[in-house]
Amino acid sequence: MERKTAYIAPEEIARQRGFSEKIAERFAARQAHPRACVDTFGCQQNVADGQKLMGMLEEMGFSFTDEPKEADLVILNTCAVREHAEQRVFGNLGALTHTKRENPEQVICLCGCMAQEERVARRVKESYRHVDLVFGPHALWRFPELLWQVYESRKRVFSVADERGSIAEGIPTVREKGVKAWVSIMYGCNNFCSYCIVPYVRGRERSRDKDAVLAEVRELVDAGYKDITLLGQNVNSYGNDLGGEYGFADLLRDIDRIPGEYLIRFMSSHPKDATPKLFDAMAECPHVAKQLHLPFQSGSNRVLKEMNRRYTREQYLELIRYAREKMPGLVLTSDVIIGFPGETEEEAMETVSLVQEVGFDALFTFIYSPRPGTKAAELPDPVPRAEKQKWFDRLLEVQNAHSAAAHAAYVGKTVRVLVDSRSDDAEYPLASRTEGNRLVRLKGDESLIGKFLDVKITGSNTWALYGEAL
Ligand code: SAM
Ligand code: SF4
Ligand code: F3S
User: Ligand 1 mean position to 279 CA, how many Å?
Assistant: First the structure.
C-alpha cells in the first residue's frame, strides 16, 4: 500500500533555501546584522518547530535575542490548547505595538497553532494591524518565502489555509546546546477528543519515514546528545498512515540498536493504542527509559465516552498493571482534565480515586477550557468555575501527597542520573534526571554536565530529589 501522506518535494525545500539566501544577501548588501526574537509557547512539538524556525533564520543571517525591543523580527510561535495560553499571546501582541512604534522597520510575525485558527487570523487581520506575517503549522516549511514576500512587498502576508498537512524533511534546526534533544516522529492527530483543538490546527496524522527518524537519532547520538525524546500527539499510532505492519514498537527496537550511551523517551501515548507489544519493546530495549506518560484525562467512564477517548477506566488500569508487571519500578505520569462540561462532583472524584489507585509519579492537571470549534464547546457547562476549582484542589492535594511520599522513598537510595544543566540553587548547583525523568538537584561542579552518574539521594520534597555524587 502507498503512504497516504504528502511529502514536500526536495526541490521545493531547495527553493525555500533560495529565499533564505536572498534574504541573507539583502541584509549583507546593507551591512545589516539582523536579530530575531523567537518566543515559543505550548508543547514540545511547538518547541521543536521553534528550533526549525531558528534554523531557517540562522540561514538568513539572523542572530538571536530574548528582548523584543532589540529585535528586527519578533516571532510569537503560539499554542491554542487552552484559553489562557491564547490570552497571553494577545497580551504580548498588544505590547508589541510599542516596540514597533519605536522601530517601524520591525517585522512582527504570529505563527503556530493559534495562527491556524480562522477566528484568530481574522481577529489579527482586523484588530492587530501591526502584525506583518501570520502562518499556521502547515506553512512552516514555507517560512523563508513568506518572509521574503513581507520584505519585498511590505504588505501584510497571511498563510493560514486549512490542510490535512504534509511532511517536510531537510529543514535546518538550531538545537539547544546540552544533552537533551527532541525528534518529531509524526505530526497531527486523528483522535478528535471532543475538548481538543489540536486536530483542527495540526491536521491529520502523518508519520515520518523510519529511515529519516533513525538517521536523525544517530546524528544526535554522534553529536553527544544523551536524552532524546520522540515526539508525536499519539506516538502509538506511528506508522498507521504508512500502510504496512511497521509500528511504534518496531521503531523503538530499531532505534535501540543504535550504539552509544543515551536514553530514549517518548510522548505522548494514547491509551487506546498502547499495547502489550509496546510495553514488551520498552522492557526489552536497554536505551528506552522506563518511564511512561500515559494521559487518562478522566476516571469516569461516562466522561471518557463524552470526551471520545475510546477506552474505559478498567482498560486503562489493566494497561498500567501489565506495564508495571513488565517493568517493575516504571515511572508513570499522566494528564488530567477536571470540569469537563456536565461532569458531576461524583465523576470528578472518580478521577481523584483513579489517581489514588494508580499512584502517579507526577501529574499534569488542567481545568477544562472551552475551545471554539470543538464538540465539547457546544455542550451545556452548568458547574461554576469556583466549584471546579474545589475539585481541582482536592486532586492536587491527593497528588502532591503522593509525589512527596514517592520522593521520600528515594532517600538513602543510590540512583543513576544524567546531569543535564546548571540549576538556580546555590547549594545544589546541578540539575540531573533519573532514568524515570525525576529531577535530582546535585552538589558538584559543571564538568559533570552530560555525564551519567551514580548518586546518593539525601533529601526530597514534592517536586524534587536532592543528592550527592558517589
Ligand atoms: N496528544 C496528547 C494526548 O492525547 O495525550 C496531549 C495533547 S494536549 C497538547 C496536552 C493536554 O492538554 C491533554 O492531554 C489534555 O489533558 C490537555 N487539554 C487539551 N485540551 C484541553 C482543554 N480544552 N481544556 C483543558 N485541558 C486540555
Ligand atoms: Fe488532543 Fe486527543 Fe489528539 Fe491528544 S489525542 S492531541 S488530546 S485530540
Ligand atoms: Fe499547543 Fe499546538 Fe502543542 S495547541 S499544546 S502548541 S500542538
Answer: 23
